[in-house]
Design a protein that fits this description.
The structure holds two protein chains of two kinds. Helices cover 16% and strands 34% of the residues of chain A. Chain A has four helices and eleven strands; from the N terminus they run E-E-E-E-E-H-E-E-H-E-E-H-E-H-E. In chain A, strand 7, helix 2 and strand 8 form a beta-alpha-beta unit. Chain A is globular and about 55 Å long. The model of chain A has no long low-confidence stretch (mean pLDDT 92). By secondary structure, chain B is mainly beta. Chain B has one domain: Oxidoreductase, molybdopterin-binding domain (Sulfite Oxidase, Chain A, domain 2, Alpha-Beta Complex), CATH 3.90.420.10. In chain B, the strands form two sheets. In chain B, strands 1, 4, 5, 8, 9 and 10 form a six-stranded mixed beta sheet that branches. In chain B, strands 3-2-11-6-7 form a five-stranded mixed beta sheet. Classes of the chains: A alpha/beta, B mainly beta. At the A-B interface, strand 3, strand 4, strand 6, helix 4 and strand 11 of A face helix 3 of B.
Chain lengths: 236, 202
């Protein structure tokens, strides 16, 4: 546990695969020079350094589950004007080396050791995907329920992998043809049916989403001290 | 050892000298980073306590703390997630004014700041005295928003901003250091942005 919350020094990682997730999101698979076990929900920092010494770094959640692999996957949303995310999207190719540091975070983590409700808004699904993948990989899918909120179908990350009895996708602006639920923000009726007894709730998304989702979880009867929140600001 | 990134150019202009290493200027935006649900606190029942190793453990109500001499901070704040917000104006009361009333005992060397949510963060006493720390309720000319820690938060702007406990409820003075919430979860015990003390071991 102590080791899991103490990040490595900066190390070099090699980009071994880049996959598009949506028109504005890509997953970067990085092979670490010094592999380190991470926990589902943790993040890494990516640091870019220019020849004049200027550097820029940002934190990105790990989407891949802990599985003993020397690789981690980071899914990055391309934010207009975001100097790191734009560089990763527009310049980085397979074979490039990046400086990274991690894994970081000992609070927004899940070890598949108790029931969990995962509430994600948009790109906030990334750390929750590591948790869902961990649950599925370890035959503990019974412990996890994931509800992800996206504006429209094209915005959904991991769209082919996500469907399953433990996942729900809700659409806030535009639903797929034939959907029975009209587009709307996350409400109690989306959450109450999938709330397992004694679940810890993990909320990740923009600040407005996080506030709305914690309110909904509270309305569903979840005590405040069982709700863990990770907010995405405009961190570029 | 710093490694240059292929293709990452040098055309970044002058770096603002107010930015500590590894930080960027978030401009007019003010990101929100919180590990908990945002509480709704009523100033009618709000209190702030100074307790532990003090001569006079003291509790202030909202009105009582506002009756103390006002104090302003004008300057920058630095979040460990790498954004800094420059040139802010905060209003509140200096922690010095509170400690003048509660009177730390000679053995007090550290404080644990605690919030109405249960959040905690530890600081050396020397980092919250000498005009370096405030209990702040106004930011940028208006009441501090709930999401930013309102109605009042601790403000210790020379350290990374997780030390500036949102929804602060008080300070407990101690004769030893012990880790608070993020410090137990891998973050540095002191958190000086100019030394990049982000994580345990930095």
């Amino acid at each position: 546990m102590a080791d899991a919350t103490r990040p490595s020094p900066w190390q070099t990682a090699t980009v071994v695969e880049i996959r598009p997730e949506t028109p504005t999101a890509k997953t970067f698979r990085l092979r670490l020079d010094h592999p380190s076990d991470h926990l589902a929900g943790q993040h890494y920092i990516v640091r870019l350094t220019a020849p004049d010494g200027y550097s820029a770094s940002r934190s990105y959640s790990v989407a891949s589950p802990p599985d003993g692999s020397p690789d981690i996957e980071l899914t990055v949303e391309r934010l207009p004007g975001g100097e790191v995310s734009m560089f990763l999207h527009d310049e980085v190719v397979v074979g490039d080396e990046l400086e990274v540091r991690g894994p970081i975070g000992g609070w927004f983590v899940w070890r598949a050791d108790g029931p969990a409700l995962l509430l994600g808004g948009g790109s906030g699904i990334v750390p929750l995907m590591a948790m869902l993948r961990l649950a599925r990989n370890t035959d503990r899918a019974d412990l996890a329920r994931l509800v992800v909120s996206v504006r429209r179908p094209a915005d959904l990350y991991y769209a082919s992998e996500l469907p399953g009895p433990e996942t729900t996708v809700i659409y806030t602006r535009e639903a797929p043809p034939g959907a029975s639920r009209a587009p709307a923000r996350l409400v109690l009726a989306d959450v109450a049916p999938v709330l397992l007894a004694d679940a810890t709730v993990y909320v990740c998304g923009s600040s407005p989403f996080a506030d709305a989702a914690t309110d909904v979880a509270g309305a569903a009867g979840v005590a405040v001290d069982r709700i863990r929140v990770e907010r995405f600001g405009p961190t570029g | 050892m710093v490694k240059f990134t292929r293709g990452f150019g040098s055309h970044h202009g002058e770096r603002d000298p107010r930015l500590p290493p590894g930080q960027y200027d978030t401009g007019r935006t003010w990101p929100v980073l919180t590990a908990e649900a945002t509480p709704r606190l009523d100033t009618a029942t709000w209190t702030f306590k100074v307790e532990g190793l003090v001569e006079t453990p003291t509790t202030w109500t909202w009105d009582e703390i506002h009756a103390l001499p006002p104090s302003v901070y004008e300057g920058d704040i630095h979040c460990v997630t790498t954004w800094s917000k420059l040139g802010m104006t905060w209003n509140g009361v200096s922690v010095d004014a509170l400690l003048d009333i509660a009177k730390p005992q000679p053995t007090a060397t550290y404080v644990m700041a605690f919030s109405h949510t249960g959040y905690t963060t530890n600081l050396p006493l020397a980092d919250v005295t000498g005009g370096q720390a405030w209990v702040a309720w106004d930011a940028e000319g208006g009441p501090l928003a709930r999401e930013h820690g309102g109605p009042a938060r601790l403000l210790v702007p020379h350290l990374y901003f997780w030390k500036s406990a949102k929804w602060v409820a008080g300070l407990r003075l101690m004769d030893h250091d012990e880790p608070g919430f993020w410090e137990r979860n891998g973050y540095h015990d002191r958190g000086d942005p100019w030394l990049e003390q982000r994580y345990q071991g930095d």
